[in-house]
Amino acid sequence: MQTEQSSTSIIKASIIALVIALTTLVLFILPAEYNVDPTGMGEKLGLTVFNQPAENNQVESQSSDGQQDSVIVTVPAGKGIEYKLAMAQYEKVNYEWMTDGGPLYVDLHGEPKGDTTGYFESYTIATAEQMKGSFTAPFEGSHGWYWKNESDKEMQVQVIFSGEYTIEGLK
To answer: Under the phi-then-psi rule, with left for phi > 0, alpha for psi from -120 to 50, and beta for the rest, what region is 50?
Structure first.
């Protein structure tokens, strides 16, 4: 009798441990490590922005070889930052970005290579928590995003992109 009770307790404890492990995997580990969020809870908890490491919020300059790149940048409270890609004329980038908090002012724009006049061309200007799209560079130069955080706390932005470019990083 005591052996049956002991076996039943072990089976119950094992099932409970398995349920806890699977719940932890689905709710926390998959969103944080692999950006897989089947329940949507990882995004609500802010875990999906942590799936790619970013030392000093910046990726060193590198050329894309058709793979997807991802970076997490921090936009300080009341400040703005730029993240740029060098692109040749007619090269294309697919992108998606999302914040871990609230909306940011964003200006997706480009600056011609070698220009010293301060000229830039805006492709998209908005205030949003996330954005997904693509653009084709109309000229050779530096193209990317300017985000301005008008809130009183810093926000992180995860940017996922693929296409033809060389990463310049934070400017």
So the answer is: alpha
